[in-house]
Amino acid sequence: MKAAILKSFGSPLVVDTLPDPVLGTGEVIVDVVAAGVLPYANEVFSGARKYLLTLPIVPGAGGIGRVRAVGPDATRLAVGDWVSCDPTVRSRDDALTPDITLQGVSARGEGGLRLQKHFHHGSYAEQIRVPTENAIPIGAIDPVDAGKWCALSLFLVPYGGLLAANFQAGETLLVSGATGNFGSAGVAVALAMGAGCVVAPGRNEKMLADLTRRFGRRVRIVTLTGDEGADCERMKKAAPGPIDCVLDLLPPSAGTKPVRAAVMTVREYGRAVLMGGVGMLGGDDLALPYPWIMRNNITVRGQWMYPREATTRLAALVRAGLLNLDDVETTSFTLDDINKAVAHAAATGGPFKRTVVCP
Which one of 105, 107, 118, 148 has the fewest beta carbons within 10 angstroms of its own beta carbon? Predict the structure, then answer.
């Protein structure tokens, strides 16, 4: 099969031929039709992000494709089914604390690296081998729409946070980092889930205006000033009532002050979910007042990625017309132009934009 290979950090991807993946029990082989290119993929491939990757490797985090072959344990998947390949691979020998690798992107710790040795290559190839449970049916689609369906992976991250928060229809959500790639997706997903209101703070006034244009009066935008106390009050006043939940999706480049300002807008018995990258590049720790958390019965939790059933449930929102994949502008490249795709994703990646490669 043809594949794009990362042979060394800092070098361009090389398109070459590799042996076709071999099917094993508990596995599925998928013909990749389209795979998303992360806006920060160049930072991963250069080594700047210091992700745990054993080279050489075919990168690529998930994608959309059709089942080529299934193992003997598959009872419902069939050859030809359209599936979304979830890159979040979990070890099967510890139900409580499984090791995790993001297939084709990174690993978490030594256990994740061991898992990566088997589920090694990602989706920038004509075929990919994934665990049976990671090939998730999405129903029949037009092949020309495969690139558009890659937007599922963008929406899945904030959706995982909203599921973790047990977010309910009619509630008010504040999305910290609403003008970013995942944050803006979080606004869209919350509205699809029936949010009564989404408070969207940020400094990018053009993007804030775009959120209002796209989604209307259920979005209440707030231009941040950088004054933590003042911003906290401005966000509270923007909401039509108490803020039930805060979802933080700020990137590693952000500091802790805007996170704290956002979290402390939440009402008594409210919830805050932390999913962003704040602190990954160093800096201050997030300091939240102990008495405030305790006396107001605040729930603060971290959430990494999303549960297994999230893809199926999110696809149902798309099928119901509640979440519109056409909101995402998609630009496609061939596998031979993978390095152009990586450069394009870095240059244009942002809210409601997606770069995909079509093997």
Answer: 118
